[in-house]
Amino acid sequence: QVQLQESGPGLVKPSQTLSLTCTVSGDSISSSSDYWAWIRQPAGKGLEWIGQVYSSGNANYNPSLETRVAISVDTAKNQFTLQLNSVTAADTAVYYCARDKYDYVGGSPYNWVDPWGPGTLVTVSS
Amino acid sequence: DIQMTQSPSSLSASVGDRVTITCRASQTIHNYLNWYQQKPGKAPKLLIYGVSRLQRGVPSRFSGSGSGTDFTLTISRLQPEDFATYHCQQTYRIPSFGQGTRLQIK
């Protein structure tokens, strides 16, 4: 059973860099055919897909955050990391890491997010 | 980018009711539509992928339908554990989610 766990500072100052790590257990990132994603949710609001990374290090980002975000992978530690720079109060949210799964079902390609980590609240404040 | 709009934003219903939540995409997303359930303080949980395919372990009272730009999630015979927030997600382009529909007990 695949499980994910976010870790990192819960408080970041404005203009600084938010850095979170996701540790994966029950699956090996290096041998997985899936991507690994970060998604966030401001309090009382909807979900926002931030980006994803493959075991090769290839990453894709939401264009709305592309200039400030980097997602990297450490296959030796079975972890992947989110870095978001120049943060403001608008970046305050619960951040989730998750598996971005791709599969063929009945001959058709599908993509969905499962499982998710429990989430970690990051507050941007001085 | 593709905008996803859910309606209603919230609704109240009773145990045993049949409920339908709608999700509309700003352009066609073919069948790249997923549904998630989220309970307070918890991460979302996958219910349905590919419009109508139930994730393993999800009760059969949940069903999805639609195509192109308009999709629905139906819960027949609401159970107490179904009161939660539901999110749709498109994965045709850069993934995006609807704003969520909060299902409350009447």
Question: Gist?
Answer:
The complex is a heterodimer of chains A (126) and B (106). In chain A, 0% of the residues lie in helices and 56% in strands.
Description:
The complex is a heterodimer of chains A (126) and B (106). By secondary structure, chain A is mostly beta strands. Chain A is built from no helices and 11 strands. Chain A has strands spanning 3-7, 11-12, 18-25, 35-41, 48-53, 59-61, 69-74, 79-84, 93-105, 108-116, 120-124. The radius of gyration of chain A is 14 Å and the shape is globular. Chain B has strands at 4-7, 10-13, 19-25, 33-38, 45-49, 53-54, 62-67, 70-75, 85-90, 96-97, 101-105. The mean pLDDT of chain B is 97. Chain B has 106 residues and is mainly β. The chains are: A mainly beta (126), B mainly beta (106). Chain A binds chain B through residues 45-49, 60, 62-64, 96, 98, 100, 105, 108, 110-119, and chain B through 1, 31-32, 34, 36, 42-46, 49-50, 53, 55, 87, 89, 91, 94-100.
Q: Spans of chain A with pLDDT under 50 lasting ≥5 residues?
A: none
The assigned structural class of chain A equals mainly beta
* Shape category of chain A: globular
Q: What is the count of β-strands of chain A?
A: 11
- Helix/strand order of chain B, N-terminal first: EEEEEEEEEEE
Succession of helices and strands of chain A? EEEEEEEEEEE
Q: Considering DSSP H and I runs of 4 or more, what fraction of the residues of chain B is helical?
A: under 10%
Helical segment count of chain A? 0
Radius of gyration of chain A equals 14 Å
Strand content of chain A: over 45%
**Rg of chain B (CA only):** 13 Å
| Chain oligomer state | heterodimer
Number of strands of chain B: 11
List keywords for this structure.
heterodimer, A: mainly beta, seven-stranded mixed β-sheet, 11 strands, globular, B: 106 residues, mainly beta, four-stranded antiparallel β-sheet, 0% helix
